[in-house]
Amino acid sequence: MPVFKNEENGTWYVMARYVNWKGEHKQKCKRGFATKREAQEWEREFQQKESKDINMSFSSFCELYENDIRPRIKENTWLTKEHIIKTKLLPYFGNKNLCDITTADVRAWQNELLAYRDNKKKPYSQTYLKTVHNQLSAIFNHAVKYYNLSFNPAAKAGNMGSEEKPEMEFWTKEEYLKFAEVMMNKPLYYYAFEMLYWCGIREGELLALTPADFDFKNSTVSITKSYQRLHGEDVITSPKTKKSVRTIKMPSFLCEEMQEYMTKLYKIEKNDRLFQITKNALIYEMERGSKLAGVKKIKIHGLRHSHISLLIDMGFSAVAIADRVGHESIDITYRYAHLFPSKQVEMADRLDSERGEYGNVS
């Protein structure tokens, strides 16, 4: 057994041999165990993980899960998953063998989360409970699909929580114009809000914009990237979805405004970020401006909803709107169905017309 004692300091260490995914024979050394038993336990877990043995602990499998999926998703998406795994899954399932976790274990875990109350006696939201359960189920699904786990106990246990769709907040054009007027004394934020409202872009897309993204000859702006703040650093990533990569036609007045804004920026290079501000700063200025303008308070993302509602009110189709804002048309249809009143009237009129062709039933 590859477990040895360091006679100098009395600790134990492991010399584990294994075959990697390329078929190469490798060796790993792990030092600093207080007892022989601890060293043997680590070696056993290591070998099970390397051999993809589902007798490994849930904690070890989560390491495999991370290695498998982290390179395939955005870093901010992984950070959300990681937080749930570390705070909600590992404390309960971490030391259990993956193959021994039962439906009853999952339901007992669900009951603990359902019974939780914070210091204000508030439970977890239904959306959060659903998100946490979905992450557990995703890990088991991964084990079933790629590591021969026989079934997903989280799926068998049934979901908890539900998706709560928050009320959609948006401004009418009149409300936005009131807001924009009071923001003119802060040009940086005024131009940022102009882009958000009149183009319907996401805040991450706004904060990633550079002069190179604008084609004033053709009155367009290209959305090809998104800004994130991760681990205390500015990170530029690809947009949210493939559909999000798009070219937006800007109204003439907005082209003039953005050209004017860029002339005020000292020695800006073509690939420099135009809006070097934080999301928190945008939120603060939007709340300040809303109060000054006397319009209801909405979130930054509400400006995207406002743009879409304006286009719907102007009579554009779901397909045309989806192309502009980087959504699937089916999402626009379902999510904003209540904002298509003219289409509902048109449908009813057409149905009346169709019914009339057959005459009245006596």
The radius of gyration over CA amounts to 28 Å
Order of neighbouring strands in the sheet with most strands = 1-2-3
Helix segment count? 15
Low-confidence stretches: none
End-to-end gap: 93 Å
Q: What characteristic shape results from the CA principal axes?
A: globular
Largest sheet composition: 3 strands, antiparallel
Name the average pLDDT: 87
Along the chain, the helix and strand elements come as EEEHHHHHHHHHEEEEEHHHHHH
Instruction: Supply the helix-strand structural class.
Output: mainly alpha
Strand content: 5-15%
* Secondary structure: helix percent: 40-55%
How many β-strand stretches? 8
Short description:
The protein has helices at 36-50, 58-69, 75-93, 103-115, 126-147, 153-157, 173-182, 187-199, 203-207, 252-263, 279-293, 302-313, 318-325, 329-335, 341-356, and strands at 3-5, 12-19, 25-33, 214-215, 220-223, 226-230, 233-237, 246-249.
Write the layout of secondary structure elements.
Elements: E1 3-5, E2 12-19, E3 25-33, H1 36-50, H2 58-69, H3 75-93, H4 103-115, H5 126-147, H6 153-157, H7 173-182, H8 187-199, H9 203-207, E4 214-215, E5 220-223, E6 226-230, E7 233-237, E8 246-249, H10 252-263, H11 279-293, H12 302-313, H13 318-325, H14 329-335, H15 341-356
Antiparallel strand pairs: 1-2, 2-3, 4-5, 5-8, 6-7
